[in-house]
Amino acid sequence: MPDAPNLLYAQSGGVTSVINATAWGVATAAAASPKVGRVYAGRNGILGVLAEELIDVTAEDKREIAKLRHTPGGAFGSCRLKLTDPAKDSRSFERIAEVFKAHRIGYFLYNGGNDSQDTTNKVAEFCRARGVDVRCVGIPKTVDNDLAATDCCPGFGSVAKYVAATVAETALDVESMARTSTKLFILEVMGRHAGWIAAAGGLPYPAAGPVILALPEVPHKRFFAAVKAKIAKHGYCVVVASEGLADAKGRHLSERGTKDSFAHAQLGGVAAVLAERAKAKLGVKYHWALADYMQRAARHLSSQVDLDQAAKVGQAAVAYATAGKTQVMPAIVRTSDRPYRWTVKPVPLQEVANKERKLPKGYVTADGYYITAACRRYLQPLIAGEAPQPYRDGLPVHARLRRRAVRKKLPAFRV
Amino acid sequence: MPDAPNLLYAQSGGVTSVINATAWGVATAAAASPKVGRVYAGRNGILGVLAEELIDVTAEDKREIAKLRHTPGGAFGSCRLKLTDPAKDSRSFERIAEVFKAHRIGYFLYNGGNDSQDTTNKVAEFCRARGVDVRCVGIPKTVDNDLAATDCCPGFGSVAKYVAATVAETALDVESMARTSTKLFILEVMGRHAGWIAAAGGLPYPAAGPVILALPEVPHKRFFAAVKAKIAKHGYCVVVASEGLADAKGRHLSERGTKDSFAHAQLGGVAAVLAERAKAKLGVKYHWALADYMQRAARHLSSQVDLDQAAKVGQAAVAYATAGKTQVMPAIVRTSDRPYRWTVKPVPLQEVANKERKLPKGYVTADGYYITAACRRYLQPLIAGEAPQPYRDGLPVHARLRRRAVRKKLPAFRV
After folding, report:
1. Residues B39, B44, B48, CA angle at the centre, nearest 5°?
2. Which of A363, B25, B181, B265 has CA 20 to 30 A from B81's CA?
């Protein structure tokens, strides 16, 4: 509707294989709402909002918007940028409020992890204090599955499925060669402080099987003994190691010494460290793999449940904002394990912001190296279903957006 | 047929996502042939033949045999074991001939790479010299695509598809974050001396796109300049690096100093070396991934063409052997690029044994960092089609064989 306020959507932080399904949910729900004028997106997330670099989503070809459901990455660009505390330096928040006013933004939807939910909350508080009338809704997204107040996080189920399937496949490879070749295979997966992704590697096999999970929540005093026991029993061992593994002093096993813009240490290389130590202690031939971006970009193996939830939180965010709700996030509520049933409900952003949900104690076996039946009951539904991926000439078909820039109305701003 | 000679099949060397489709082709074609008695498989390849550890394939449940078409790894076990030259030490060959006689083996089908084709040839020569009547047929298999005398190698098309799809997906991820985060992403793939797998990473983008291929056939004098130019143009760069990259002196960039049983250096870690050097030279934030076994076990993303060819060479090997042919290998012959058409024909094992087919010069662009149109025309058909993968509870369904041991008839043998 031409006179209705416009909606601004932005993607934040590390992208996932289904964050664009959320963008699709937002774009199509907003297009269908008489309470929304045009739909804009921040180019490279909040950076584009600050720089007044907005993309006109309403001008995109509807067929390309439909393809967002099977396109990984962040179609409008994302960024890692932590805003300064407005109590100390409010210039960024003032700029955001100006951009909102200049472009008649009535709805701000910010799609990210716990840092981003905090940002959304602060933007909402700031706008309210300045009398800028904008509904601010956070939308959950993180492969790490560590957001509070939601049963799970869109993006996680697909990584979980990728890791579980990869363990199932690579374990068969290792098993078939172990007699004369590799006896230890280590797959390093994401998960800075929480072992949710590594936990999914436990789904294909029972605890008595050839797989060990190295979780960041657990001290690893008997790790090599556990590996040795698996090799003795099965002839080989597959380890799923979280990148966030720490030593007894809490130092990450493989810090590179570099920090990202959130002051988090940049990780990667835990598998190499564990493999070398295992070789020194046990004398076994090893291989290791580092899934890195492959795991969170692997839309070709996304979970249908995850895809559905990613789309739904986008649609729900539009519904909440246009119903007048603000400072909320659509959370996923599980109503049944088997059959799996879920719904969404709005939760206050304060309940989500800056919290971190780790694997509960009851999800890890007593020895620390596997998942319990309760964890399996939690994880299994999240990897269910194979989300369709169209292919052309053997390659996945992805959306290619025009990303037409909205005309600027303000003076430049130095971010 | 009860009185007909038995058939012995063995898997050799690194496994692939479709080598079990070849096993399916062998098992079903042999079961249908009146010229074949029982079908046996060596447990862990030639090692099982030497140890007289044979698996009774005929006793397997036919439904599980059917699942071999969507099961990665080597269902009967494989091994890395180079037999001594029979001219110097013929004990292994004498043992193999004894096992053949004891189990009435009339057909020996050996499924592997160029080392294995050489072994098959030597077994055939040895048996002929000793008057042991066995048809020996090699069956091609290698993700490296480096076998001579065949247009392509079963196993390669699926890895090529996996690498190409992974580049398409991860490039979108990197593109969306590059403004504030990773600008260089390096994906390390297999390929000891030949860059066929890395070349497949060029399929999703044109040469002017954000991707660079680091091939072992090419000297890398201007690599970092090429990366810098891509980042300047696109804001980011994706490098597909072959594990076999060597420096100007021919030393592999990342030898670990360990050797496998074929006296090949164990590789892995090229991506880390390149990334650290790029950071030092260009100061860019990087990420890297090591696909390792993931790429060759990823049956969930196998190419239908590759799967068809893997099954066909298994069937053809049975047809050749039962027609009296020996010392041959079914080679894939391409009869048309577009539409892609292929057939199989028998080629003498001498034409295959111990040769290594590298990327032709005409397949690499003048600057050394991309594939030409001719290479694209060669590769594209090999990744075509998505081979169906059944799932249950969100996980791929794989065959689980009984692997019933055939009763031993000979004294033990020390391998």
Report:
1. 65
2. B25
Q: How far is B410 from chain A (nearest CA, A)?
A: 22
Choosing from A115, A118, A144, A306, which is the catalytic residue? Answer: A144
Whether residue B113 is predicted with pLDDT greater than 90 in this model: the reply is yes
Test A15 with B173 for CB contact under 8 angstroms: yes
Contacts of B17 in chain A (CB under 8 A): 169
Specify the DSSP element, H or E, that contains B8: strand B6-11
Give the gap in angstroms from C-alpha B135 to the nearest C-alpha of chain A.
26
Interchain pair B181, A79: CB under 8 A = yes
User: Binding site: which residues of A?
Assistant: 14, 114, 142-144, 190-192, 243, 293-296
Output the CA angle B154-B155-B160, nearest 5 degrees.
115
Give the count of Cβ contacts less than 8 A between chain A and B. 213
Tens digit of each residue's pLDDT (9 = 90 or more) over B124-153: 999 999 999 999 999 999 999 999 999 999
Q: CA-to-CA distance for B350 and B340, rounded, in angstroms?
A: 28
Summarize pLDDT for A290-311 with one digit per residue, the tens.
999 999 999 999 999 999 999 9
Which residues of chain A are under the pLDDT cut of 50?
A: 256-268
- Per the CB < 8 Å rule, is B169 touching A396? yes
Residues 6+ apart with CB under 8 A from A208: none
> Which residue type is seen at B41?
A
- Residue B269 has a pLDDT of 78
Q: Which site among B161, B175, B294 would you substitute to test the A interface, given the most A Cβ atoms closer than 10 Å to its Cβ?
A: B294
Averaged pLDDT, B9-25: 98
Q: Which residues of B are catalytic?
A: 144
Strand residues in A208-308 grouped as ranges (E): 211-214, 237-242, 286-290
State yes or no: ipTM above 0.85.
yes
| Amino acid symbol at B361 | K
Q: What is the pLDDT of residue A354?
A: 82
Strands in A123-279 per DSSP E: 135-140, 184-189, 211-214, 237-242
Contact B393 A385 (CB under 8 A): no
Radius of gyration, CA atoms only, chain B? 22
In this complex, the residue of A15, A165, A168 whose CB is nearest that of residue B176 is A15
pLDDT at A256: 45
Which of A46, A64, A173, A264 would best serve as a mutation to test chain B binding (most B beta carbons within 10 A)? A173
Closest A-chain CA to B190: A289
Q: Closest Cα of chain B to A74: distance in Å?
A: 5
Residue ranges of A for the binding site for Mg(2+)? 114
> What structural domains and CATH numbers belong to chain B?
6-142+301-355+386-396 (3.40.50.450), 156-296+367-383 (3.40.50.460)
B173 is in an annotated binding site: no
User: Are residues B395 and A165, on separate chains, in Cβ contact within 8 Å?
Assistant: yes
Provide the terminal-to-terminal Cα distance of chain A, rounded to the nearest Å: 33
What's the distance, Cα to Cα, between the start and end of chain B in Å?
33
Q: How many residues does chain B have?
A: 415
Q: Is B272 on the interface with A (CB under 8 A)?
A: yes
